[in-house]
Each structure stands twice: as structure tokens, then as C-alpha cells.
Amino acid sequence: MTAALDAQVEIIKLARVLGTEPEELDYLRAAQPDDLRRLRDQVTDVLFDGDRARLGGFAAGSRVIPAAFAATVAERALGPVLCARLTALVEPDKALEIAKRLPAPFLAAVAVEMDPRRAKDVIAHVPADLIEAVAGELGRRGEAVTMGRFVGFLRDPAVRAAMKGIDDATLLETAFVMEGKERLDHIMSLLPSKRLRSIVVAANEREMWPETLDLLTSVSPKRRAALVKLAIDEDLEGMLPGLFAAVEDTDSWKTGLRLLTELPQELKSQLAPAAERLDPSQRKHALEQARRLGLLDDLGPIGEALSR
Description:
It is built from 19 helices and no strands. By secondary structure, the protein is mainly α.
């Protein structure tokens, strides 16, 4: 991911923790992504550690309370926020027993308030069917940030179930804000080719170009080429101008153009006509950036099309 996109993602996550809108934190865009990440972790730690002493008694009592009764108390008396804090304090096996007895909408509300780092042993063992139901609820609520925080703690069957439970646009949004991007290439490998194709179509229809650019920079060259090939096969005329617009908005020309240089020659040739049909001002700017970065020759047919 580029530094600009990384900072944008961290601001989105920090806003979620603070209960505000990302636009309210625009003044942080110049901050380093790692600093924003540390700030987010510190804020989360303050929120959770402040409740530890107060909730310790509840957690200790859960050892002797039947799971069915504990689930009733959790849903009717404690609510999502306290349950999210308690999850990290209750023994994992007992927490899992209780979770299995709670409805998906309530678990989704709990997930929004949780710090998955503190409950990874519970999350890793939640049944796939329950994961799918909760993911569906989170998707309907627009909680891509929440899902992005949990993905890194799920096993492959649960990841497949979660992706099955959400639509293509939400999946792209989740990948954009996902923690542990190093797993993204593997996660994309779990999707059937039909689903990958529909994601590419959704990216074009929704003009989700920053998310698409981030996805392409986060996966392996082989998978990147496969995704671009799918886009070309769908005859998505907006792909190249959309990606160039995202590159310009995030000041990530080096990253975006380098992605194109790494494509197989066949795909460069297929993208060349789209490059030639770019808006003249956009084509001129792309050409200037390619020359400035010394990447024009490496773009091959795309570079030739930009030069015409």
C-alpha cells in the first residue's frame, strides 16, 4: 500500500474507535501511518483497560454460570459494549459456549465494540456458519472496518464463510481496511474465479478505485495480473482512467505505474487502446509522470499509447 492510502485507512480505523467520521480527522492526513496506528492501539487499550477491574468479578462468576443463562444475561442485561469488554476476560472455551447461544445481530453489535487482539483464541474457534451470519449482519450495517479487524484472526473455513456472507463492494471495502495485509493474497486465493470476476465488475460499477489500487498493490504479481485480465475480459473501459484518477488523488504515481510495468506483455498490449482513449489531460499527466519516474519504456505498449 502507498503511504497516502495507508494513512487514509488508518484515519478511517481511528475514526471508528473514536466514534466520529473520518472527515473530522482530515487534519491527520500528514501524519505517518505507523504513528496513527500506534495512536489507535493506545486509544483502544485505554478504553478496554479502564473496564478491567470493574468487570473482573463478572468474568470470574462466568466460570460457574451455565452458558445458556450467561447468554441470556449478556443479551438482556449487559448489552454489546460490556460483553465486548468481558470477552477478553472470560475463559475462551466458556466465551465460545456463550457466543454459540447468542443471535447473530447481537454478536455483530458485540463485534463492533470488540478489540479482536484480546479475544483471538475465541474468534479462531467460532463455527463457520455463525461467522457467515455475523458477517452478513456486519455487511448490512456497513461495518467493513470491524470485519477488517477480525479477518486476520480467522481460519480459512471461517474466512470463506465470512466472504460468502457479504457482497462484493463490502468485500472490497473490508480488504481496504484489513489488518495484516500480508494475508490478503492468500485470502484472495480462497475465492472462486466467478466471485473474483464479480468483484472486478463491482469495483468498476461503484468506482471503487482507491480500494482497487490498494488491492492490486497488496497481492502477488501473479494474482494482480489475473485480476487485470478479468477486468479486460469484462471490457471495463473505466478501469484505466479510474485507476489513474485514484493514483492522482493519492499521489501514488510511482506505485500505480510500476504495477502496470509488472504486467505481462500481452496484458500491456490489451490495455494500450484504453490508454490511448484517456482524456487528453489525463493522458498528458500520466505521460509526464511516467517520464519523470523513468518508467515510460517499461510500460511498453501502454507507454507508446500515452505518447501518441
